[in-house]
Design goal:
Elements lengths: L5 H21 L5 E6 L15 E4 L3 H4 E2 L2 E2 L3 E4 L8 E6 L2 E7 L18 E4 L6 E6 L3 E7 L10 E3 L10 E4 L1
Length: about 170
Amino acid sequence: MRGTSLKTKVAACAASFAAVAAVVVTAGPADAAEFTVSDNCNVPWISCSYGDLWVFYNSKELAVQGGYYKSAFATFYGSVSDHYGTSQYQGSSLSTYRYVFGNGGNGNGQYVKNNAASVQNCAPGDNYRVYFSSGYGGTSQYFAKNEPYGDCNITNLISALKNNNASSHIA
């Protein structure tokens, strides 16, 4: 019985290696999921009851007209280090939640990060700051808490932050 030539063995080994490499290259993360939410309270690992800081897609002149919200908005409770979203491993699964404007109106479905024009602080006890950079850096704007029996006043972001919002923090 004749043995297999070295050339044939090398070719077979190279073909096997190529097949395994193709499988490895095309395989993606085993368990990864991405979701969109317009309220950070809808992220499973964030404990809160409702959003206090409302971030609007439009400026205040367009966001509320005739007593009705015309602009899409997102609500945040507590500090949010990145308006793009948050990710966390739960076991071996990576879950990512992207913050988008929701609730209908102009901008519905757009990402919150770098797309906001106005803010409304409805927190009865918390002041907020909105920042230019993720991680609470750069230029910021202060929004005072909502006084008892007061309206949640909507305020336009300053020009340095309009469509350049990246994080928000309890001040």
